Give the backbone structure.
Amino acid sequence: MAASSGSRSGKSRVIRIALDAMGGDFAPAVPVTGAIEALSELPASCQIQLIGREADVRAELDKHDVSQDRLLVIDAGEVIEMNEKPLAAIRGKRRSSIRVGLELQKAGESDAFISAGNTGAVMAASTLFLGLHPGVDRPAIAALFPTAGKPALVLDAGANVDCSPRELRGFAHIGSVYARDVLGRSDPSVGLLNIGEEEEKGNEAVRNTYELLANDPGIRFVGNVEGRDILSGACDVTVCDGFVGNVLLKFYETVAHLFRGLLEREMEQSVLRGDGMRRVFKVLDYSEYGGAPLLGVRGVSIICHGRSPSRAIKNAIGVALQSVESKLNQHIAAEFASRESVT
Amino acid sequence: MAASSGSRSGKSRVIRIALDAMGGDFAPAVPVTGAIEALSELPASCQIQLIGREADVRAELDKHDVSQDRLLVIDAGEVIEMNEKPLAAIRGKRRSSIRVGLELQKAGESDAFISAGNTGAVMAASTLFLGLHPGVDRPAIAALFPTAGKPALVLDAGANVDCSPRELRGFAHIGSVYARDVLGRSDPSVGLLNIGEEEEKGNEAVRNTYELLANDPGIRFVGNVEGRDILSGACDVTVCDGFVGNVLLKFYETVAHLFRGLLEREMEQSVLRGDGMRRVFKVLDYSEYGGAPLLGVRGVSIICHGRSPSRAIKNAIGVALQSVESKLNQHIAAEFASRESVT
């Protein structure tokens, strides 16, 4: 089983990244621009598949003076809107860009999928069409939180509202592999998000998770971490349920906005427009991180914010490439295969 | 029942605020200094009761050149340490400052209690000695989150790890009364913290709470709010369980620190030390808000951060005074009494 995703990319040296050209608040303009910006930084062996209404995508491409050698347009006549119910939309719209892009990956004709469209639909379709790795109970959204140093990985950031201890342990494993493969942390540490450091703190699910993590030799568990530890580098991977993670992620996204508002109220224009301030806000800018991967599915699926600018799309393409090149999927499969034999 | 707390403060015009002089990382120096700083701003009718080891407190007072007319030292020979188990500590240390201070309030000889000591012990002792208002199932910690405009009230910020829909509805009522009495919001709006705006989002507890709040004529419910809405002023009162609220509060407390670190790395000293920057960080400074009240108990109990500086203690004394003067407890009792007759 573990070899399936590897053999796909092994068949040919070309890495094919599918991008939902109809996803996000500014589609198709922003995804197309993001793809073009990415091309110049991608290796020659990398191809971007733009999935969407062909006429619209080509019209957008025509606005740019760029060689379309490595940009393939794949027609998908339907669009899942942001406010549609995910499952109904996926079932009803067989030619939607989200469904077409993920079916392409399922068929072995694409290596990764990126969308800034309806998050629920991308999650549901990714799980449905790519399936989960054996041993993975639920997929998780892995979000990067900017810090003054290395970004902090928090999962789940919204794929699941309730999580069992076994599922949370699964997130610890998936997150550790991602931290190694894509973030370059050689021996990633895992913290369990809680309201106190002591083992007996928290609700029942969290207390039971503590025990599972503490007794799992495959996880470098550093114990409970609190809200105050996430940005301080206390651990590489912070594990929590998708309710808490989603609230935190969306909360943190507004903090840079609050800072900017306060500074604009109190500081001189010359300071606000200086290079120093630009560097400060670059650190806090989510689009630097591209998107959040849905981990646990047998493939690569990256979810971008609906309001992503083209730079975020470009960076998400980079994350997708790194996920494929690092053989993330083979490593996640191996992580769970080795666990099965132990537990 | 509703008149009990009112009659206490009605007996005499003197308002007596008990301060745990042994609580916090820098006790007794910081609480004593905070009390002295508060005195100059308090009305003449207000008295501060310093609870702690008498010799230690008097030695600290002697360092200050201040009239001790309105500072009463009340001896409490024991101290509950930060790392002690709350219930065992309260039961075992009958002469601890936390217990003495709250028993004083129970006996009608004090109107409010403030502590920067062991949070769990203060919560447990407050509930045990003051009791809960009839109709209140659980007390909640109400935390103020700084914003560019009016601060946002979030509860529960850590008193309860799991909350039933009925308890969450209780927090909405308690929080609304506090927002009116102490924050001066005439018709406070209430949002339910969730991972999406739609009614059907979230876990079961939150979905059921939505229904309760939407059908409660005593609450101005504005629906679900997301993490991104807390700082934007979408509602006056944000209701959530104590796990999520505690994680968010502790997370937010570190954000100003991160921001300061980034600015120090990137900006000139002259900018960092300027008045504009000072005003920015004053907005984000938790000590401006003093402490977080434990609401729902039949009395006034305010919990301060263990690392509170004296300004935070001073401001907590101001919050305590306002809580007593505004008859917060009578209003909370009345809020639940009127609900009982409706539901």
Q: What stands out?
A: Residues 1-11 of chain B have pLDDT under 50 and may be disordered. The domain at 1-136+296-343 of chain B is CATH 3.40.718.10 (Isopropylmalate Dehydrogenase). Chain B is about 45% helix and 15% strand.
